[in-house]
Amino acid sequence: MDYVNQRVAEAAAKGPTDIYTGLVSPLNVILLIITLYTTYLLYKPSPPATLPREQPAVVFRTFTPRTLLPYNGTNGMPVFLAVRGRVFDVTSGRNFYGPGGPYENFAGRDASRGLAFHSFDEDMLTKDLDGPLDKLEGLGPEEFESLQGWEERFLSKYMVVGRLVAQADA
């Protein structure tokens, strides 16, 4: 019993600084820092939500083959192409239809015949920009079906920004 009384007397004789040195250990300091940091992360204000930028308004225009030609994706221009008289803005598919893409021949042009025949050849494009539009004569049922498939794909994916007319009709 003397031992217990002695320990109680020693504990009572300790000064207040001796008590705090037991609490301020490196482990306790690290735990306190982690707790404070976690509390900060939980309660810090979140930044305001940012809305996606709205696409600029596009005015429906009438294009001729010559006025459509600059819209081929070069010089910062958007990428447009025409299918059966409809002009589509395919800028979001620039990797395919813009410069360096597999369909770059169609950019700024009437792509109807080339898409129908699945051909990227230059001879599928109208050479005379001031002449009449391609009437798509000589297309068989398979080519016409292929062209309709392309047109449906473009209608579901891209915005129609105009129509293509011959120079004489403009």
Detail the topology: elements first, then pairings.
Layout: H1 2-13, H2 16-23, H3 26-43, E1 61-63, H4 65-68, E2 80-83, E3 86-89, H5 94-97, H6 112-117, H7 141-157, E4 159-164
Parallel strand pairs: 1-4
Antiparallel strand pairs: 2-3, 3-4
Description:
A four-stranded mixed β-sheet has the order 1-4-3-2. Helix content is 41%, strand content 10%. With 170 residues, it is an alpha+beta fold. The N and C termini lie far apart (115 Å). It is rod-shaped. The protein contains seven helices and four strands; from the N terminus they run H-H-H-E-H-E-E-H-H-H-E. It has helices spanning 2-13, 16-23, 26-43, 65-68, 94-97, 112-117, 141-157; strands spanning 61-63, 80-83, 86-89, 159-164.
**Order of strands across the main sheet:** 1-4-3-2
Report the end-to-end length measured between terminal Cα atoms. 115 Å
What is the percent of helical residues? 40-55%
Give me the strand/helix succession: HHHEHEEHHHE
Stretches with pLDDT under 50, minimum 5 residues: none
Mean of pLDDT: 86
Query: Structural class of the helices, strands and pairings?
Result: alpha+beta
Query: What percent of residues are in strands?
Result: 5-15%
Keywords:
alpha+beta, 10% strand, 170 residues, 7 helices, four-stranded mixed β-sheet
